[in-house]
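During the reporting period the student researcher (J.K.) took over the structure-prediction task from the postdoctoral fellow and processed the backlog of single-chain submissions. One of the processed entries is reproduced below for the supervisory committee.
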Amino acid sequence: MPRSVNAVASKARRKKILKAAKGFYGKRKNVYTVAKNVVEKGQTYAYVGRKLKKREYRSLWIARINAAVREEGLTYSEFIHKLNQKNAGLDRKVLADLAMNEPESFKRLVASVK
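J.K. obtained the following structure tokens:
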């Protein structure tokens, strides 16, 4: 009886890994065993990077809000506390965008919170 190996599926699996490794340097792009390890490592970095991106943006927004609020004589924590007391439904992304692109309206917001 002939040996059954399901070559179609295994070839497709290898092809998928090598396609993901396209553009890598040296054996990383065309040797399956090396490419498999590198692609897997790259995917873990991509996963972690998606989480880090959220943290980094939040810290950037906080820094921008803090800089804009200090010009008005408040600190970031005081400003956020007073915003929460007023139940303003603005998140840090929107506040940072206001502070950067529309400073006049941001100043009016800070004045209304004071």
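The committee noted the following: Helices lie at 7-20, 32-70, 76-85, 92-101, 103-113.
J.K. will present the remaining backlog at the next meeting.
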